Description:
Elements: E1 5-6, H1 7-18, H2 21-38, H3 48-58, E2 62-63
Parallel strand pairs: 1-2
Helix pairs in contact: 1-2, 1-3, 2-3
Amino acid sequence: MRPTKTLQERENELRTLLATPGGQKELHDLETRYQAASDRVKPGKMSVITYILVHERNQGLISR
């Protein structure tokens, strides 16, 4: 299990990924994997970063 990160640390990591095509693909892959794991679709107006952060926080991967 990977160590927990703060919300700010993880958000910065995800925003960095958003800046490159490869990172964008990685974000899309995470979104797809998290949707399959939770059986919940990302609401239309929610950003992929917010969706990932919410999922990871619910899984205990992000600390306060």
